[in-house]
Amino acid sequence: MAGRISRRKLDRMMQASTRASMTEKEWQARMKCVAYHEAAHAVVAYSHGGGDVDGISLVPDLRWMGIAYTRRKVSDAPAVLMAGMLAETKLTGKPFIELLREKQDDADGGAVNDWSDLLETQRQYPDEINVATGIWWARELLDQPENWAAVEALAAALLEKEKLTGKQARRIIEQAQRDVESSEE
Hints:
Blueprint: H1 7-20, H2 24-47, E1 52-57, E2 67-71, H3 77-92, H4 96-106, H5 109-124, H6 131-143, H7 145-161, E3 163-165, H8 166-184
Antiparallel strand pairs: 1-2, 1-3
Helix pairs in contact: 2-3, 2-7, 3-5, 3-6, 7-8
């Protein structure tokens, strides 16, 4: 066993290496995008009906800068998978295709994996998956003020704590949605 490195230590080394290649301002901007990206996955899974959130993390590993653990129906996969990228477009103002190209060039595993997972899910379930409809649904959900407020609240909590349990995430989503709904009355 001598010479073996634990997965957690390797993940932290990877984070340190990625962070060392950026200025503090670049790192903060990147992590803000990642927080919004993961928060959007969680909010859309939770708000689209039939989905749930098991946890969210901004602790990078070998494949992702962050991850949202969600459970969803297969038919909801396109909306949930595309929500992350759509939240980034809303946050940065960059067009979806431009952002996807940047992510591919930077080898940002999460966004590229979301797209690959979506195409693979469509291949496996061609009668149940419609990518265009999924993107439309995700955009519609993120454009609802109560859902965008939930994304913002969840992203802020993630940036502060790095990890949230499913229970914490659901509580933040529900509170943000209630706050917006009560302010509209």
